[in-house]
Automatic annotation (TrEMBL):
It comes from Sphingomicrobium clamense. Residues 23-215 form the Electron transfer flavoprotein alpha/beta-subunit N-terminal domain. The keyword Hydrolase does not apply. Keywords: Electron transport, Transport. PROSITE patterns: ETF_BETA. This is Electron transfer flavoprotein subunit beta. InterPro entries: ET-Flavoprotein_bsu_CS, ETF_a/b_N, ETF_b, ETF_beta_N. Belongs to the ETF beta-subunit/FixA family. Coiled coil: none annotated. It comes from the Bacteria.
Amino acid sequence: MKLLVAVKRVIDYNVKPRVKMDGSGVDLANVKMSMNPFDEIAVEEAIRLKEKGTASEIVVVSIGPAKAQETLRTALAMGADRAILIQTEDEVAAMVEPLGVAKLLAKVVEEENPDMVILGKQAIDDDSNATGQMLAALLGWPQGTFASKVEPGDGSVNVTREIDGGLETVKLTLPAVVTTDLRLNDPRYASLPNIMKAKSKPLETKTPADYGIDTTRRLEITNVAEPPKREAGEKVGSVDELVAKLKDLGVA
């Protein structure tokens, strides 16, 4: 089984984003970047499938600026076999919309012909939660989203997914698209020897033009602002006082 894993370079989840003074977007200057946490889980799951002997090759792909090579090298150090970077212009690197990403990934799928595409359920920078679903629709493949367990079988894969009512298991005929949730696994840390080995693993660079895909944005961001600061609460001395306060506020 050949696996294709999509990863994205985003602001590190430990960093608090700063909004630009003009409100045009998030300030990325001198900010630590890393692999999207959900995509890291996707890479880990692909590696585990290879360690079990289920998968034979893992190809990771990313869409972004030249610096996204660092993200791909991280995936290679974790255990992926080779990587593809679809390089965009720096100023629009973080601006490729989910539909554009899905179209580019569909072209990569046509070239690589994987048995399964694994990607995070969403990116933590825009929280769109749309790329995996759009990719499945473009390919006409079955999809298993929010996966908390992945069990490949003979020509199929069982995906246990989290829904509002609990857990649901769907059986997908391969090839298929799977998006990962937080409870699927705990990603490993890349060891120093593997980091060194990753430097010599193949990393191919292409552009959206090579695939004939227009990544021009169709949506315009009019303003970006930080959420309002939460006001301090009030302490009450008894339940009766609490009830009275809630009635005064009109919520009880």
